């Protein structure tokens, strides 16, 4: 199993039967009176997560672009990380793009590239900036690498940490739910 599949494996359990009308193919013992797990049980895994970031990341992984509010929540969280760290480091605003706009564009790029690793193989460094919406007249690749790349790395760490925490919460909830359903 590749690392991408392993990274998102716990989220697959949530996608099975996530809507009220989804068929349930879970193994169950007929005639025992046991209630099979349904979408409400699985959505409880999201509710059990500690932070809104974890909940929003999970929603994006499961529902994709349909989860626009959660996407914006994660994007604004990551952008805030960049802005606060750049302010703390005493970085001055780039000349041709506002730091808030740069942070939003970079956060979108980080989310898209983290959740779709195929993008990484198809874009050069300059292509990544173009994908994000930062044009060459706004910032050179050298300026980005020397000054702003470190903040992209911080955003990647924050997002990967949220994905990891969400996966652990799903796994713990799943084990607890199956344990309770057997008792």
Query: What characteristic shape results from the CA principal axes?
Result: elongated
Quote the distance from N terminus to C terminus: 33 Å
Beta strand %: under 5%
Runs in which pLDDT lies below 50 for 5 or more consecutive residues are: 28-34
Q: Total helix count?
A: 8
Q: Describe the largest sheet.
A: none
Question: How many domains would you count in the coordinates?
Answer: 1
Instruction: State the share of residues found in helices, binned by percent.
Output: 55-70%
Report mean pLDDT, rounded to a whole number: 84
Oligomeric form:
single chain
Q: What pattern of helices and strands is seen along the backbone? A: HHHHHHHH
Which class best fits the helix and strand makeup?
Answer: mainly alpha
DSSP E strands, number: 0
Radius of gyration in whole Å, from Cα? Answer: 20 Å
Description:
- Helices cover 69% and strands 0% of the residues.
- By secondary structure, the protein is mostly helical.
- It has one domain.
- The longest helix has 42 residues, at 141-182.
- The two termini are 33 Å apart.
- The model is unreliable at 28-34 (pLDDT under 50).
Secondary-structure blueprint:
Elements: H1 3-15, H2 39-47, H3 52-63, H4 68-88, H5 99-115, H6 118-122, H7 125-132, H8 141-182
Helix pairs in contact: 1-8, 2-8, 3-4, 3-8, 4-5, 4-8, 5-7, 5-8
């Amino acid at each position: 199993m590749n690392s991408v599949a392993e990274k998102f494996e716990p989220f697959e359990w949530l996608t099975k039967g996530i809507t009220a009308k989804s068929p349930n193919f879970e193994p169950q013992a007929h005639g025992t009176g046991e209630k099979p797990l349904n979408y409400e049980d699985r959505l409880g895994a999201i509710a059990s997560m500690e932070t809104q970031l974890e909940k929003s990341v999970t929603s994006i992984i499961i529902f994709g672009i349909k989860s626009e509010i959660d996407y914006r929540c994660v994007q604004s969280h990551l952008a805030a990380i960049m802005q606060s760290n750049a302010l703390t480091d005493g970085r001055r605003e780039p000349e041709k793009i506002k730091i808030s706009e740069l942070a939003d564009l970079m956060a979108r790029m980080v989310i898209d590239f983290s959740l779709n690793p195929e993008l990484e193989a198809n874009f050069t460094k300059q292509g990544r900036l173009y994908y994000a919406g930062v044009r060459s007249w706004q910032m050179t690749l050298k300026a980005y690498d020397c000054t702003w790349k470190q903040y992209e790395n911080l955003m990647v760490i924050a997002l990967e940490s949220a994905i990891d925490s969400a996966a652990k919460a799903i796994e713990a909830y799943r084990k607890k739910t199956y344990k309770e359903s057997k008792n």
